[in-house]
Write a structure and sequence with these properties.
Elements lengths: L3 H6 L2 H30 L5 H14 L4 H13 L8 H11 L17 H40 L3 E2 L4 H13 L6 E5 L6 E3 L5 E5 L2 H4 L2 H17 L1 H14 L4 H24 L4 H14 L16 H10 L8 H33 L4 H5 L2 E8 L11 E2 L3 E8 H9 L6 E2 L4 H4 L1 E8 L1 H8 L3 H10 L1 H8 L3 E16 L7 E2 L21 E5 L2 E8 H11 L4 E4 L6 E7 L12 H9 L1 E17 L7
Parallel strand pairs: 2-4, 8-16, 10-14
Antiparallel strand pairs: 1-2, 3-4, 5-9, 6-7, 7-9, 10-16, 11-15, 12-13, 13-15
Helix pairs in contact: 2-3, 3-11, 4-14, 5-14, 6-10, 7-9, 9-11, 9-12, 10-11, 12-13
Length: about 600
């Protein structure tokens, strides 16, 4: 079962859902840890400063950094493209998305057994069911408490006079509250509390003024009015949403406890600041606890929440909190700015890099590779159809389509080229381009693998200049065949370095070296061939979709593969069976995350 994590990480559902969610949880956890460190720095300051830090950490779970990255990337597209330092971009990408799925390169992942394949297919459904179950349980928990609260306040009547009413209106005038808070009397045994999020109402139990002195009643109502002024019920409701969505993360429940602690302490500090006597205020809280029950709802702010013993001790000590100094304000502002700016700048840099990749090159860059280029559209399709070939200094193509040219220039397959008009795939061109002398000399110094790669990539500036090709890269889920090592494989014969194959296949110059692969009907022969070359050949010649190498085999091999072409009623192995039986490799059809090229602009060239 040791291969299960790798199979999961490189499965399509992980690329689509798992990796983004893992990134979001990792970033939100780190953000909360940073907020916790800042609260230690502010432990002698006002509780409301620490409260808003904890609330920001909670709200971060609802705001993924990817949203800021997206905003930056959209802004980046409207700016003049520039050159992004690759080191900086890769560093930001690695920090921001440590769980990013693979795109262009495919790591070695063992072929899943039947059991692993079953688990991989079932895991997304199982995880979704588990999350929905937890989400429903949390909602049921909160709804049951809402029903309890509704039952307790059923039959409550508005109050328009009396000591509670007069005291509340007096406190509202002192606080400068424009809209008066509704006041209702409940026959329940619940403590005084604020109900509602946007239209807030103060619920007080009947007979409370008989149990509290006027000074104690003023202190209790002043505390509740602080909750109104601070909009604590709205903040609590938002955190309840966080708890419902991320119920599986212990940190969100710990954040909830911190929010209640600092919320109540902030209100305590405000009540004392407005002139209430600490001993009277502490006695009023204890009397409420003696006669009444705590509110069952997190978003129905009362007076008895948090650690009561610790709150009473702090109230009685009545230490005046220290105002935030300029230095600490600067630290908080800087941290907030960095938290927003870093993902935003990352999106801006990513868009700039993508935009720069998508811009057509100017003629000076093309001239640095080719000293002359001749292009004619083959309107009669009289030329020999095909991509083309390189000689030592010349590239020649007869009847080549733009899709063929793009495919070879960027080392991709047809399924990885998206967008563009229909003539990209149907129009054919005859091209003859002569390389600049210095470029040809440098290319001749390269070995076979490096030379093939470099020669083909010289076509990129030609396409950008003469066809005004502009494109960008994306990672998408596309149907593909994934080539893996079969259960009884591999069965490949490794090529020996320096083997000149005197009796083997010969190239056009009559040499019998490696890197030669020949295709026939139901026959594929390789001589010193890498798996990358085999995959490319299978994609081009014999299969109707992209083939992705997931074997992890890095050597070069000699092989002969024989199969029976798809003919009705024919006997013999299919290509899929032959690969498994003769080479010990297996093709698995599945959707896979693949880097694709999206054509943003392309134009027909002027002939010369």
């Amino acid at each position: 079962m040791s291969s299960l994590p790798l199979v999961i990480v490189f499965s399509p559902w992980w690329a689509a859902i798992g990796a983004p969610l893992a990134n979001h949880l990792w970033q939100s956890t780190l953000f909360a840890a940073a907020a916790g460190l800042l609260t230690l720095l502010l432990r002698r300051n006002h509780a409301k400063a620490r409260y808003w830090l904890w609330f920001t950490a909670s709200a971060k779970f609802l705001i993924p950094f990817s949203l800021l990255v997206s905003m930056g990337s959209h802004l980046g597209w409207s700016k003049v493209p520039g050159t992004t330092p690759p080191g900086l971009f890769l560093m930001l990408q690695g920090i921001g998305q440590p769980f990013a799925p693979a795109s262009q390169s495919y790591p070695t992942v063992p072929a899943p057994t039947n059991g692993l394949a079953l688990i991989t297919r079932a895991l997304p459904t199982l995880l979704l069911v588990a999350w929905l179950s937890g989400f429903a349980a949390v909602l049921f928990f909160w709804l049951s408490r809402v029903r309890r609260m509704a039952a307790a306040t059923r039959g409550a009547v508005p109050m328009q006079s009396g000591r509670e009413f007069d005291t509340l209106r007096c406190l509202e005038r002192q606080a400068g509250l424009a809209n008066p808070v509704g006041l209702i009397i409940s026959k329940s045994a619940l403590e005084p509390g604020i109900l509602g999020i946007f239209r807030q109402i103060l619920v007080v139990p009947s007979g409370i003024s008989d149990r509290l002195t006027l000074a104690q009643l003023e202190a209790i109502l002043a505390h509740e009015l602080c909750h109104v002024l601070r909009r604590d019920n709205l903040a609590a409701a938002l955190h309840m949403l966080v708890e419902a969505l991320f119920w599986f993360h212990p940190l969100v429940w710990w954040l909830g406890a911190r929010l209640v602690d600092e919320r109540e302490r902030a209100c305590d500090e405000d009540v004392l600041r407005r002139g209430s006597d600490p001993q009277v205020y502490a006695e009023s809280i204890l009397k409420v606890c003696e006669f009444y029950l705590e509110s069952p709802l997190f978003c129905a702010a009362g007076v008895t929440g948090s650690n009561l013993k610790k709150r009473i001790e702090v109230i009685m000590l009545h230490r005046t909190p220290v105002n935030l100094s300029f230095g600490r304000k600067l630290v908080l502002s800087s941290v907030g700015f960095i938290a927003v700016a870093v993902p935003f700048v990352f999106g801006l840099l990513h868009a700039t890099q993508t935009r720069a990749q998508s811009q057509p090159l100017d003629k000076g860059e093309t001239a640095a590779v080719f000293e002359s280029v001749s292009i004619h559209e083959d309107k009669t399709a009289s030329g020999m159809f095909g991509f083309g070939w390189f000689s030592s200094e010349t590239f020649t193509a007869n009847g080549a389509t733009l899709q063929q040219l793009i495919r070879e220039a960027y080392g991709v397959e047809d399924d990885q080229i998206l967008g563009g008009p229909d003539w990209v795939r149907t129009g054919r061109y005859d091209i003859k381009a002569k390389m600049a002398g210095g470029v040809a000399d440098e290319l001749r110094k390269l070995n076979t693998d490096e030379g093939e790669f470099a020669y083909l990539h010289t076509l990129q500036p030609l396409l950008a200049d003469r066809f005004k090709l502009a494109l960008h890269h994306e990672t998408r889920q596309v149907p593909a065949y994934v080539l893996v090592v079969a259960e009884n494989g591999p069965k490949l014969q490794e090529a020996k370095p320096g083997d000149t194959y005197p009796n083997g296949m010969k190239d056009l110059d009559g040499h019998g070296h490696g890197d030669i692969m020949r295709f026939g009907r139901g026959l594929l022969t390789g001589q010193g061939i890498s798996i990358r070359q085999l995959v490319k050949g299978l994609s081009k010649q014999h299969l109707d979709r992209l083939v992705v190498d997931n074997t992890g085999l890095k050597g070069k091999y000699d092989f002969t593969l024989q199969w029976t072409p798809d003919v009705s009623g024919s006997a013999g192995p299919s290509l899929f069976q032959a690969l498994e039986e003769q080479l010990g490799l297996k093709l698995e059809p599945r959707e896979s995350p693949v880097e694709v090229l999206v054509i943003d602009n392309i134009e027909k060239p002027s002939e010369n």
